[in-house]
Amino acid sequence: MSGGMSFELTEDQQLIRKSVGELLKKFDDHYWSEKDRAHEFPTEFYETVARGGWLGITIPEEYGGHGLGITEASLLAEEVSRSGGGMNAASSIHMSIFGMQPVVVHGSPELKQRTLPRIARGELHVCFGVTEPGAGLDTTRITTFARRDGDHYVVNGRKVWISKALESEKILLLTRTQHYDDVAKKTDGMTLFLTDLNRDHIDIRPIAKMGRNAVSSNELFIDDLRIPVEDRIGEEGRGFEYILDGLNPERMLIAAEALGLGRVALDRAVKYANEREVFGRPIGMNQGIQFPLADSLAHLDAAELVLRKATWLYDNGKPCGREANTAKYLCAEAGFTATDRALQTHGGMGYAEEYHVARYFREARVMRIAPISQEMILNYLGSHTLGMPRSY
Ligand SMILES: Cc1cc2nc3c(=O)[nH]c(=O)nc-3n(C[C@H](O)[C@H](O)[C@H](O)COP(=O)(O)OP(=O)(O)OC[C@H]3O[C@@H](n4cnc5c(N)ncnc54)[C@H](O)[C@@H]3O)c2cc1C
Description:
By secondary structure, the chain is α+β, with helices and mostly antiparallel strands. The protein has 11 helices and 9 strands. It has helices at 11-23, 29-38, 43-51, 70-98, 101-106, 109-121, 239-275, 287-315, 321-345, 357-366, 374-385; strands at 126-129, 145-149, 152-163, 170-176, 190-196, 202-206, 217-228, 277-278, 281-282. It has a 4-stranded antiparallel β-sheet, with no helix packed on it. Strands 1-4-5 form a 3-stranded mixed β-sheet. A two-stranded antiparallel ribbon has the order 8-9. Helix 7 packs antiparallel against helix 8 (287-315) and helix 8 runs antiparallel to helix 9 (321-345). The longest helix has 37 residues, at 239-275. The chain is globular, with a radius of gyration of 21 Å. The N and C termini lie far apart (45 Å). The structure holds flavin-adenine dinucleotide.
């Protein structure tokens, strides 16, 4: 090999793909369809992944994980999604993988010891509490407030869209410990906790939504929640800075999941296009059907390359904001477009639940909105990378 540039996965990385693919074969489309329809958490799937040791893929070895990189985690996420499990499968596990990054980097040894090994074993379900109804994408405008009271904080406020809160024991909770108007820099004065989701002080209400229904997303009403100081991550007032550590990995994993959904949708579309005969020939012979699928293959392949570059940069300790954002943007677009075309290829049957592409389509749609909207990614590229004025 010359020049050090390689487009090949290592043997270990290829093994991750293969092992995860094999492991998930028993969770077929019918399993996911049923879980989605019944709004039921995929416990059997979650436990299988946990028993396989995959939940601790990025958790340091001293805390019971494998200490692997985001490259490996993104391969896992892609295979999970590609298995047909899509976002239902991915969101039942991905918080355990990228969500703990602020704890790994800034948590006290005691907090890490108390939580990370349990996450790696699959015993501890966690959710991520950032979004608020009144703040939207402007996270600095959150108002959930943590007031210090001796060796505790007392928290009041409201969160929205918190995925998996119903099933979680703990929440990674972003609060303000100083009001917006009292800080010099708007990102100052926020504090992050990893604490019990105490149902006596937090009312959790699921939101009826378009898809990905095996994993709940919830409104949280927090009323005088007492949090011990030991549950604080790092220093008071620096919470915003800490969540930034998790954002690039989150974007890369979401990109991998979008890619996986696009790939599985494309597989289904090709199969159907080759089998379904209308006007005396397989519909896939028509360029009106074949070209959009070929075009999606090209876009998925291109998006995958940017994702590989982004994870490589991150794992090698290099800045990756531009690439992580671009990967999320391109994978979300390519993944969504592939599911839309897969649906079109199936004609009326695309609209039926029986062929599963309708489910993929609903799930791929969310990746253009969350965890960060496509517009905010373009904002980032426009202002940070191109040096244009900010609208945010
Ligand atoms: C299924 C699902 C699961 C989620 N899970 C979680 C979770 O577990 N934890 C959590 O904390 N949050 C979660 N979220 C919330 C998610 O992160 C937000 O919905 C997302 O960040 C968008 O924020 P918003 O909904 O408040 O949109 P808003 O901020 O209200 O924005 C509305 C629209 O305006 C656009 N817009 C706003 N300002 C600008 C600007 N300056 N330039 C261009 N466009 C702009 C946005 O791009 C968007 O399209 C989830 C959301 C969904 C749908």
